[in-house]
């Protein structure tokens, strides 16, 4: 009996592991649909390779899967339409404390499921949120409404300054709001060339 298939199986498994390391570290919940499909296809090819296909055919097939995934990931950084098409975009589900029902229907997400996501994040009321999104990973992104925002050190410094008639320290320029990008379907600022 020829035990060559054992070594081929070990090589294919190691090769698949190396390719998965190249694709990046993400949990299943953070993966896009394309990444999950690539992972499942790789698992299927590895499983069949041990029984049927040759070593080199399997290695080439796995390499093609990973190359296509990396190409799409690279192009999605360069072009917004590629990212939208293959990876998806965040979807607004709460705006100004009110549920955006049309977007819930598009996501096939019930109000009960949305409420569960809110509770998981310690949010007890829709009205406490200015904006909430379902990210491409399925996670909830949210921005507190003004009345529900936690007090910051800067807020306390302003309060103490007003109580003691002292000039408050200069504030740093306010950061851009990431939720505006989701609402306007475009980046607020030009992306630096080194990130493209």
UniProtKB/TrEMBL annotation:
Taxonomic superkingdom: Bacteria
Assigned keywords, A-Z: Cell membrane, Membrane, Transmembrane, Transmembrane helix
Domain YetF C-terminal intervals: 78-147
The family this protein is said to belong to: Belongs to the UPF0702 family.
Keyword Cell membrane: yes
Topology of the protein relative to the lipid bilayer: Multi-pass membrane protein
One GO cellular component, as annotated: plasma membrane
Alphabetical list of PANTHER family matching this protein: UPF0702 TRANSMEMBRANE PROTEIN YCAP, UPF0702 TRANSMEMBRANE PROTEIN YDFR
Protein name: DUF421 domain-containing protein
Entry's transmembrane regions: 6-24, 31-50, 56-77
Subcellular compartments: Cell membrane
A matching Pfam family: DUF421
């Amino acid at each position: 009996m020829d035990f060559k298939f054992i070594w081929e199986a070990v090589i294919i498994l190691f090769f698949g592991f190396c390719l998965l390391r190249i694709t990046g570290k993400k949990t299943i919940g953070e993966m896009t649909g394309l990444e999950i499909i690539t992972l499942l296809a790789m698992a299927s090819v590895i499983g069949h390779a041990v029984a049927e296909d040759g070593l080199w055919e399997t290695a080439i097939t796995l390499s093609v899967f990973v190359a296509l995934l990396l190409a799409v990931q690279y192009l999605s950084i360069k072009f917004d339409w590629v990212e939208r098409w293959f990876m998806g975009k965040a979807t607004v589900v709460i705006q100004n404390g009110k549920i955006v029902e049309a977007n819930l229907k598009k996501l096939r997400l019930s109000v009960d499921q949305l409420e569960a996501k809110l509770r998981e994040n310690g949010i007890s009321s829709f009205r406490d949120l200015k904006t909430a999104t379902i990210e491409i990973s399925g996670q909830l992104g949210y921005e507190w409404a003004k009345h529900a925002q936690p007090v910051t050190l800067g807020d306390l410094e302003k309060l103490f300054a007003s109580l003691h008639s002292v000039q408050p320290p200069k504030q740093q320029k306010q950061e851009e709001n990431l939720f505006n990008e989701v609402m306007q379907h475009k980046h607020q600022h030009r992306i630096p060339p080194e990130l493209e």
